[in-house]
Design a protein that fits this description.
Oligomer: single chain
Strand content: under 5%
Number of helices: 24
Shape: globular
Structural class: mainly alpha
Strand order of the largest sheet: 1-2
Distance between the termini: 53 Å
Largest sheet: 2 strands, antiparallel
Number of strands: 4
Radius of gyration: 25 Å
Length: about 525
Amino acid sequence: MSIADKSMALTGEPPAALSRFQKLAVLLGLSGLFIVLLAGFNVDFPNKGIWLSISLTAIFIGVFWFTKEAYALKLKGIKNDGVWFKSISSKGLWAWITGITLTGFYIVLYFFPEFLGLVKNGTNTGIIALFDPLSKLLSGNPASQWFVYGSLYTVAILAFGIKFIWKYRHNRYEIIRTISVMFFQTAFAFIIPEIMARLNGNLPYYDLKNIWPLNYYNFERYRINAFIDSGDIGMAMLLFGVLSVFVISPILTYKYGKRWYCSWVCGCGGLAETAGDSFRQLSDKSLSAWKVERWVVHSVVVFVTLMTTAVIYSYLSNDTSKYWLTKNYFLIGVALLLTLIFVLVMVFKREQFQKDARYGAIGYFAIIMALIGFHYLSGDGNVFLFKSETLRKSYGFLIGSIFSGVIGTGFYPIFGNRVWCRFGCPMAAILGFQQRLFSRFRITTNGGQCISCGNCSTYCEMGIDVRAYAQKGENIVRSSCVGCGICSAVCPRGVLKLENGPLKGRIDGNEVLLGNDVDLMTLVNQK
């Protein structure tokens, strides 16, 4: 007789306790982490390659085993599984312990790597030494704290990606996009850059899926020189970096919305969707949070635009012997590009953006004033009264370290899994602007079928009150939407649908719902 759970309840049952096999799975996973912890206390393992393999394998199998026990005996479909009854997923004691632990790890990783065993002019020790065999196998170089982080990051996405797939195995879209982020993290962010460093020692480390402004450092002087010195391959990568900003990204966003990157490619989004899936319901859906989100994330865009412009401007000159681009032409080019975008938005999309158009005007004015200041008040190596290197380090510290790492990931159990994507990621903000401006992507709703269960709003990791849109039959075109599709996956009535296509010829479900006189045949004939 089958022992599968036949319950069709949407909410599931409050978890009484972990099963015996789940406890064994947790013990196995923790044993793998314990090996890493022992290395952190400078335990000298005789064969580090074998012990590292045992550690990572134990972590992976532990997560896989726990997942199998959690979902194998349940029917496919929506299962909330009592998330608000669990301490780890409802801001309880274990959530705070986990958040503090992750935050502490990120602080050590970013600012005190010597505690992990990093030795700049000698042989590594501790945790970093444990990862030396894997690093030498891939790139031929000793490990760094970033290699350790990348390895653990990739294992987490692969292991918890399988958990995510098993949990949402009733939804084909979720399976495909999860496989996509697992592939891009493993291949493009981890393996390929290491192998490229082995083949060409002059080539800077380049995560091919990272696009400016997410890789805010990509156009710094040392990287530009490294690309140039690496010959044709380096120039091709530099050209790819430029095309990805101005050509590839806008085209893909037009066709598929920002989901092509935020939910299918991005490593930050990949970790949030897999390891952070248990915390998606913690995102703040209040109106005040939305207001803060818009101000903060767009301020970050202004900041990263100015910092990138300032850094490039600082190493250019009016002498074309090194770079054909002069300081004056560079500032003029940036100003003209921003002016063109601003004018087009104000002429064609001002009504659609409404209040956001005013925010954009403020940001545009701030950038233009700063560009004028660069021209008149900056000198060689300086931006205003500051050294360009100081500005670069300040931005890297505030955005690249504190926001994206320490807060963005360490605070998963407190603020939800997409706190960085919502409030700090400049890439998400720019793609959201493009999505709102000209993308064909939207989430359509059928308000007549909505039963107001609230599943969609609860599990929206971007803090969107999806139910409010569904009740009114309105399409969801919010710039913050990353197209993860969870709202559609957990909807018991099939109200929500992710689509790419024009609005022309569509039947306005909201007008039908309100009982207004709608000529349906006229709309159909417009197709």
